Amino acid sequence: MFINNEMVDSSSSEWIDLHNPATNEVVTRVPKCSQAEMEQAVEAAKAAFGSWSKTSILTRQQIMFKYQHIIRNNMKLLAENITKEQGKTLVDAEGDVLRGLQVVEHTCSITNLQLGEHLSGFAKDMDTYSIRQPLGVCAGITPFNFPAMIPLWMFPVAAVCGNTYVIKPSERDPGACMLLLDMLKEAGMPAGVVNCIHGTHDAVNFICDNPDIKAISFVGSDIAGKHIYERGSKNGKRVQSNMGAKNHGVIIPDASKENTLNQLVGAAFGAAGQRCMALSTAIFVGNANNWIPELIERSKQLKVNAGHEPGTDVGPVISPQSKKQNIGYH
User: Fold this and answer.
1) Model confidence over 227-284: pLDDT tens digits?
2) Which residue from 42, 9, 40, 25 is spatially nearest to 216, judged by alpha carbons?
């Protein structure tokens, strides 16, 4: 866990083995945090909110300037961890980090993003204005497929706006998130502003039910997303739930053949297809049907291997269970 800027050993009696998808060897174990441990994380965030929400925007901005620099200098370290725990190729893993880094860079423009609005002379003797204020303790629940990018969608934005945070990364590959939190501490983030818990269903329900958590961000599957949205909303929380997607490609005969085939292969098999933007269906119109044999041939030429091996095009899926499920589609 990560609480009050410290890596904290869990006293949980329940642990989850985390396997390297390429070898299936156990590389570490992840705790299912106890109720008391999760409450400790929320209390830390709650205690930090008072002072952090009053910290000047310029001070928060300076932390993010330092944070993006630290992440950029450690991209290979983060990518190696992602490849070990999630399985994607090193090139793909570096892209994962880069997309998250771009969000951190965006938070550096907080001085403009936090501007309110003012309208004078709205009516006789009346002006209107709006200001942006932090909510309080917020929480994030992230999926396994982008271990760096999606956490970086969440806690940097919430924190730079003056909120405090509790994040629950995927229990399948939380290492990148833990590294990112350690880097956040190095950037100067005060203790308690961002905290991390681990677990599965009980941790998710804890976040949905805890009265001190005011808002939840989620990215993941439809089933989990609908549950989180309904349960969190019933408890009066703001919930944004980004769930699974199905993507289709429609190929018409006058498309650029080479570019289209390259894009189709990348869209279908990049990240081993483990992303919501993966292309699962391609519809060829008219004479474009004649390209299908070449598309199949290009797909067969993709090199499948461990993500850290040079020249690998497609790394392993996250688990043997996922592989079995994928094979079952056919």
Assistant:
1) 999 999 999 999 999 998 878 899 999 999 999 999 999 999 988 889 888 898 999 9
2) 42
22-28 contacts: CB < 8 A, separation 24 or more? 22/87, 22/305, 22/306, 22/307, 22/308, 22/315, 22/316, 23/306, 24/320, 27/84, 27/85, 28/85, 28/175
Neighbours of 172 (CB within 10 A): 20
Of 33, 108, 196, 276, the active-site residue reads: 276
- Average pLDDT across the chain, whole number: 95
Exposure letters 175-201 (e unless 16+ CB within 10 A, then b): bbbbbbbebbbebebbebbbbbbbbee
User: What is the DSSP code (8-state) at residue 309?
Assistant: S
Helix, strand or coil for residue 141? strand
Amino acid at 23: T
- The question of whether 276 is a catalytic residue gets the answer yes
**At residue 273, what is the residue type?**
G
